[in-house]
Amino acid sequence: MAEIKKQQWTPELAEFHKELGDKNMGPLWASVFSAPEPKPRAVPYLWKGELILEMLEKAKELLKVGVGSIDRRAVYLINPGMKHLEPHGWGGATQTLYAAVQALNPGELAPPHRHMTSAMRFIMKGKGASGVVNGVKYTFEPGDFVITPEWCWHDHVNEGNETVFWMDVLDIPFTSALTSSFLEMYPESRQPVEHPVDFGTKRYAGGMVRPISDRRPSPAPLGRYKYDLTIQAIDGLKELEPDPFDAYIVEYINPSNGKDANGRIGARMQKLPPKFKGKAHRHTHSVVYNVYKGSGYTVMNGVRFDWKAGDIFVLPAWTWHEHVNTSGTEDAVLFSANDLPIMEAFGFEREEAYTENGGHQEIKSEFVPEYSKNSVYIK
Amino acid sequence: MAEIKKQQWTPELAEFHKELGDKNMGPLWASVFSAPEPKPRAVPYLWKGELILEMLEKAKELLKVGVGSIDRRAVYLINPGMKHLEPHGWGGATQTLYAAVQALNPGELAPPHRHMTSAMRFIMKGKGASGVVNGVKYTFEPGDFVITPEWCWHDHVNEGNETVFWMDVLDIPFTSALTSSFLEMYPESRQPVEHPVDFGTKRYAGGMVRPISDRRPSPAPLGRYKYDLTIQAIDGLKELEPDPFDAYIVEYINPSNGKDANGRIGARMQKLPPKFKGKAHRHTHSVVYNVYKGSGYTVMNGVRFDWKAGDIFVLPAWTWHEHVNTSGTEDAVLFSANDLPIMEAFGFEREEAYTENGGHQEIKSEFVPEYSKNSVYIK
Amino acid sequence: MAEIKKQQWTPELAEFHKELGDKNMGPLWASVFSAPEPKPRAVPYLWKGELILEMLEKAKELLKVGVGSIDRRAVYLINPGMKHLEPHGWGGATQTLYAAVQALNPGELAPPHRHMTSAMRFIMKGKGASGVVNGVKYTFEPGDFVITPEWCWHDHVNEGNETVFWMDVLDIPFTSALTSSFLEMYPESRQPVEHPVDFGTKRYAGGMVRPISDRRPSPAPLGRYKYDLTIQAIDGLKELEPDPFDAYIVEYINPSNGKDANGRIGARMQKLPPKFKGKAHRHTHSVVYNVYKGSGYTVMNGVRFDWKAGDIFVLPAWTWHEHVNTSGTEDAVLFSANDLPIMEAFGFEREEAYTENGGHQEIKSEFVPEYSKNSVYIK
Amino acid sequence: MAEIKKQQWTPELAEFHKELGDKNMGPLWASVFSAPEPKPRAVPYLWKGELILEMLEKAKELLKVGVGSIDRRAVYLINPGMKHLEPHGWGGATQTLYAAVQALNPGELAPPHRHMTSAMRFIMKGKGASGVVNGVKYTFEPGDFVITPEWCWHDHVNEGNETVFWMDVLDIPFTSALTSSFLEMYPESRQPVEHPVDFGTKRYAGGMVRPISDRRPSPAPLGRYKYDLTIQAIDGLKELEPDPFDAYIVEYINPSNGKDANGRIGARMQKLPPKFKGKAHRHTHSVVYNVYKGSGYTVMNGVRFDWKAGDIFVLPAWTWHEHVNTSGTEDAVLFSANDLPIMEAFGFEREEAYTENGGHQEIKSEFVPEYSKNSVYIK
Asked: A298 lies in a domain?
């Protein structure tokens, strides 16, 4: 981002800079395009689960999902540091990631479409919903991770009897930056289902093996990653030393190529055992965290963010962070989505451990939400 | 980019949208993140060579390049469609590409640094300058293409007796969007030169062969692509049918991996023979054109942009365009830089030919520069 | 393989051919290097489990494994069609694969070495043995699949109280053909163990997720694939339609890259349900089958090979084959190793389904072992 | 290759080994499959140009090329160390490479076919011949390098008025070892020509740039590499330090992917300046050298092989070698083909410099051809 150098320019130069600006040019010598280290526009932030649910309850009263009505009942999270970009910007939770929470009532259908943005969902609460991704129907249960890679048809339906809530993460800010958004609506209100229910999940019921027909790389051989198998994997790690930063952590993979399950968006699940106090580090990729179980806090650039199940918080690029489980008896379980695949594709990923003070940041303040009376949506 | 849907909301909903905004959230149903087709912020635009040179002449009077003074005397091009992003934005010529023209006087030295942004230079005018890239000194001659891939040390010096002008293209808007800008200054005023002058160029003096020590992929085995060899290649094509859009066109490659010479930024050189009248197409990648020889015009989304040697014009993403050489006797030669490698890395590239009207757009207007009295640099 | 064309040559030509041969040259016109289809030297063959065990019992009486004695007590399988290549050849079970059965008695240690050939083991019988692969100790249990990729140190020890039997598969014929055999003996009688026992297995205890530290491709993040997790995966497939050729079949993968677990040698496990009668097909890769459970037969190029648990049989390249489970109540479980990764690396893999006779070959004869009194080992 | 260990076995063991052999099994403990270093079957060898031409002259008298007659008039080179493999073997010049010299008379047509083996040709002498590769006609001139990657249709014709001679190199021993030979005859006596003559060569007339339509990797964008452009490239190197082993050497590349021009077979051209005395090294890949100009010698494993233009000599895997130009005034020019791409595909390539005696082997003897009266072609 270009900043204007804080420097006393002569009147002649100031006049010249103005002339350049008038003519759609700029003076490189007076601009800062590159800094010694990344300075993300996004700030560390946290949205309380209660607040998100309260907003979705209002949305449920005011709006119905379905054909002829709204397509998706989702409230997205706007990083306060990027708020000035709205409505000109793109509603980013971080530099590259959009995050929202969606609610689908019994009987509602979110009709099918496809887009160049990648999408993933983490099921937070409720049973009975399902989604169809390119002709395969996947049922949603709490803790499941469901993928919708780019340009795959997808719709959602709730055939149960309670509202189902999930978090959506898409790479909208990234695809917006590249001006590569294509979108297509499906001509029917639902896709035909062409395979047995939970096809991919049945094909991947156990260890590190795959059906031989998935030998060729493909975008979504396994559409839904069940919570219980993931937890089984994490619990296997408990016999080993915990990672100093993340305790017991795994990432979801595409079994046809060993890459991230969702292509451009990485996804992970981690358990912090009781009283786990992680060390601090930072990296160029950014992260959206969804607290699935337990309670604790994360220190980001010296600010303590307390969290409990249902909360969502974001870690911008190159931001020091450390996680703590404050419970003495319960595990904390965090799901997270990241833009690491994008950063790695161009060699941008860097990581650094915090070495001072035994690896722990000094806590300078506690997080206070920045509610504004200056909403971008006021007319 | 999120637009607000043009829709009559009930007072309750309007109030709710405002409340969401206050709490750093947004209503997905009232936002447009994805459109059926890309809508670039950038607009087609052209900067006349005379204007650019005039600005650089002023800069030469007002500023000196060197240690203790300014690092680079470069005037960069601001796409009017992205101007509102300044100074908060990044000075993009297109969605991902920064472009500037730089002038280096005899005796001046632009000191060494390196950054995560990729850089390339196209030498426009003047002799006697040279650059050192990771210990290899390359002399600059008009028409040469010189690369500085990410994180390579580079400096420039003019040891001749005339001012040398070149165009710089970097992927600053892209690396800014990913918050991945690292920058490091070299501890000395010049890098040591570790190889014979024009080392890479001497190693690639002929056909499609390489020194066997360049068998392993590396970022810049050949640092400078000489104009005469490139023209020899283009002239070989003249015995074949011209491309309907681009006549005789080649792209610079890295001989160690067959990919684009500069990694994340593609570069091409093309000749339009006398009276060539290209057909229209559009693609998701964006382009910066530098007219090296000749004169003609390019129609972009129905607007005719006349150009001649020295002019620079930009093609945003997904914009219809067709090139015409108006001379009956002279070739036109265009150098261009593009973000195709970035688009391809994630499967974003799409292309479409214009099929109506024999492949030619209706010309609705002629380009008029939009000079503004409302410069972003006014204090 | 060059055959001499069956043709009546003139006396002058016959004389000329002889002269060429004398001078270390050959007449291309009189040779057949390429045929319309592959003609493998290897033939379909089967070794009965009882015979293999009988031979190993003799070897146990006559030889002891350990430092100062023999390194490995293994009996390898010689394809009769390649027998004439012994001792000049390489003891291939197929064109590229060596297969052997190894027996390790309680208290014996097979000392560490490493080689450029890839190795894998399938544990057939017995408990108490383990292997150390590059510093990680893996315990062996029946049905487990254990890998030793190229140039990894490996040794084996039996700390239990019964003999343990396993099948080794290596790509010795392939590495021999490429003259790329390097071998190094470890300076000590055992490697130090640097990680918790069964480290990799504990790190991969569940679904399609991996520890984040295995994000970078590496040769053996998971050294042993446990039988029970593999069977859990296969049983997940039973809700779906069986594969017409192979019923329920999975292949072992390296979770860091999605490629075959063992690099150059593929490995699979399959279940044929009771009364399964597979269809015939052929492919250019060759296979070594190890019958782990059940009984049935496989028809290869019209010959019926009956098998039961403990038997090993080989399928040469481009050979029609179909599998049948003759039991009405029990599953048959086949482990198999193949050279598909080698074939695919150069685009050599082709596959063809048998379309006549409902997809089933006519059975022309039953397999009879070809015991020879003309052993290559007679002095 | 399995050797039998030179060891005194007890009578019981000897009897047991025999029994195993009778039953198509072998004792691992008595076999040597892996050695500390590769021991190639192939030996260093040289065929004098005069001898090859003499043989081809006889072949010209005795045989005519064309439809209804023989397909190709080629005499192939049999490595004496692999001679015992004939006719069961594959006529290898090295472990993986077949080499032959072919003569085509004015008016003759070698009809089209295609095969899974890769082929390349180096034009040694004569003008007027040409080949059609997948619909592109390439004219042949001395010093040109022409490729025929796997499964490409190819035929040759001589429309001039002198006999044309070229060396063919194919990977027949390699594809034979993998049993992957497919061959198909073209239904007509000639292929239709679908592009302008020398299409690829015209598209690559200069420096390191390519037509943009060759951006996607393809097997043969450039079918013929002209001698003069290759020499221009080599001469560019002369301003730099010569390589200690190979003086001035380049390798032919595929401009669409930066890999070897012919996929599985590497090809190089090198100039040894007058009095150049290279140092010795060895590597796991094997090489066929064709002396195009000049005279000198190569020491291989202590034996001196004198050569001059027209001679062909072979370097087996892991063989010490050093090249010397004995002329005080003339350059020596060597074309060579190698199996490096095959070795690298599986990580098999290793290289070692000879460090004793200033990098030069002691010359123990001079090469004497091993003419045999025991030809494999005698009936």
From this structure: yes
